[in-house]
Amino acid sequence: MPRLERCRPFQGQGRGFFLFVPPTFFLYTDSNLQFTGPAVIISFMQGRKILIIEDEEDLVDLLRFNLEAQGYEVAAAYTGEEGLAMAQQEKPDVLLLDIMLPGMDGLDVCRRLKRSPATADISIIMVTAKGEESDIVEGLELGADDYVTKPFSLKVLFARIQAVLRRREGDDSPERLIRGPVMVDPVKFEVTVSGRPVTLTPTEFRILHLLVRKPGWTFTRNQIMQHVHGENHAATARSVDVQIVGLRRKLGEAGALIETIRGIGYRFRAAEDE
To answer: Bridge-partner residues for 150, per DSSP?
Structure first.
């Protein structure tokens, strides 16, 4: 028999319940029903360490239960200070980091971890409330790998964790990159779409190469500008938007693979998002 248990709703008022029917997860509140399953099986990721830094105990319990069911080793902290100390000691593969924490907030935790060579390679997924675009931008520019907004589905979260771990083990060699119909060869400075050669300017090529190297990774406009022009260049965020428009046009239908993340920047669509 499925079991119905009481929990705090992720947002809004009223009673919250979750119904767990393996392997499917539902979330109920007084005013709405959100279907979030089925759960994703991540067998090849078993044994990886995940640290959750989140002050909502019900959410921590829920995440711990489902992540451990997939074979992850899970630890949790409820304050920024406690989480920072655990991350420095345990060095998890992935950190699920809430921005709004009592005491030291998530952005400060991210900043301190990324500044230290001992913890800079920890993959960080920020957990945010809707409407925190400025915090998302700041977190990504501090070095966070990705983000999810509350309320979120377990399927989406598991896919983001998978993607982050794949990127963590990715190959940074200069070999050509193939993402769907798009091929980028950084050695020959060539781009093709479904075998058709595409002529790009040097700036367009650098932007495309940056995006396709890490599909699913959201880059802020500032990060793109620094990659293309360096930190001291006088380019504006608007210039990035203009370059993206031209790049999409030249890529034809494949231009839709470059996605706009409203208020933040751009990313190249990951295979699991298709």
So the answer is: 129
pLDDT tier at 169, thresholds 50, 70, 90: low
120 and 148 Cβ atoms separated by less than 8 Å: no
Task: Answer for the pair 27, 34: CB distance below 8 angstroms, yes or no.
Answer: yes
Q: Which two tokens stand for residue 185?
A: 């060869």
Q: Is the peptide bond before 38 cis (omega within 30 degrees of 0)?
A: yes
Whether omega for the bond prior to residue 9 falls within 30 degrees of 0, making it cis, is no
The arrangement of strands across the sheet holding 73-77 comes to 73-77, 49-53, 94-98, 123-129, 146-150
- Res 56: pLDDT: 92
pTM over 0.85: no
Mean pLDDT of the chain: 78
Domains with residue ranges and CATH for the chain? 42-168 (3.40.50.2300), 177-273 (1.10.10.10)
